[in-house]
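_Per-residue structure_
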Amino acid sequence: MNIQVLKSKIHRATITEANLDYMGSITIDEELMEAANMIEGEKVSIYNITNGERFSTYVITGQRGSGVIGLNGAAARKVMVNDLIIIISYASMDFEEAKTFKPTIVFPNENNQL
């Protein structure tokens, strides 16, 4: 039996951009992506601490070291610049493997830097 478990989490990132005129996705600073063990195209859940919105999208790579956390397309309507969010990805794995799996959790500062 496989179950879904927390794989990666960026906790309390700050929205720096909301771009309505874009195809969609979340842009994440490449340093944060690497630290959180996330890859471009990966499905993520976004939990907006500021307003309670919850939705899913996929990751695109942002400029390394920029601190960018930008919601694009329709998702841009669910955030405002300076909102605090949690970005989570999940993995499907065997139940026994999941018992010992350790997720990667990143806590960026107010400028989305490590």
Notes: The helical segments are 30-35, 95-100.
